[in-house]
Specification:
Elements: E1 2-7, H1 13-22, E2 26-29, H2 31-38, H3 59-73, H4 77-85, E3 92-97, H5 100-108, E4 112-117, H6 120-130, H7 141-155, H8 157-160, E5 166-169, H9 174-188
Parallel strand pairs: 1-3, 1-4, 2-3, 4-5
Helix pairs in contact: 2-4
């Protein structure tokens, strides 16, 4: 079983994927292959499209390199690489699915797609709390909104909601989120 998790920045995609991981799924992010290729950490892959110059995997560089790979090798290239990285696993959850082509690739592989959403203020608060290295350039809500708007114009993330099998509104507690995810897990593993 393959599960793809879609949503805007800091909506809770990784947390949802971690709940699947706790239930035995192998977790991989769509950005993992990009990071691995940029840092030349490719031993877990049976194939790679090409090895770029070694670089620091900043958010901007990941976006740029991801766009290049999709233009050159097709919209589904990151899904193919993510699944390849976890090819020895029976069940895989892919965090950070970002485009219609990636969703369609998950579906073609027989997978299910979950869209996770939360309002911008909640997502900004989470982003500030997580203090991820890739987010260090975001200092204010205005910075966050600019990045969120840029990602929306690039990926049209909000339109991807209609392509998902499941939609999770993540505005409550961690326990409430876990309960929503558990219901989906019970449904998909039957």
């Amino acid at each position: 079983m393959i599960i793809g998790v879609v949503g805007k920045i800091a909506a809770g995609k990784t947390t949802v994927a971690e709940f699947f991981e706790e239930r035995g799924f192998c977790r991989v992010s769509c950005s993992d292959p990009l990071i691995d290729l940029l840092t030349h950490n490719v031993s877990e892959y049976s194939w790679i499209p090409e090895l770029p110059k070694r670089e620091d995997p900043t958010r901007d560089r990941l976006i740029e390199f991801g766009r290049y790979l999709k233009e050159r090798y097709g919209e589904e290239v990151l899904i193919r690489l993510a699944v390849d990285k976890r090819r020895h696993c029976e069940n895989v959850v892919i965090d950070g699915v970002r485009s219609k082509g990636e969703i369609n690739a998950v579906k073609r592989l027989g997978g299910k797609v979950i869209y996770v959403e939360a309002n911008p203020e909640t997502r900004f608060e989470r982003l500030v709390r997580r203090k991820a290295n890739k987010d260090r350039s975001i200092k204010s809500f205005k910075d966050f909104k600019a990045m969120d708007d840029a990602e929306e114009s690039l990926y049209h993330t909000s339109k991807l909601k209609d392509l998902a099998h499941y939609v999770i509104v993540n505005e409550g507690t961690l326990e409430e989120l876990k309960e929503k995810v558990e219901r989906i897990i019970m449904e998909v593993i039957e």
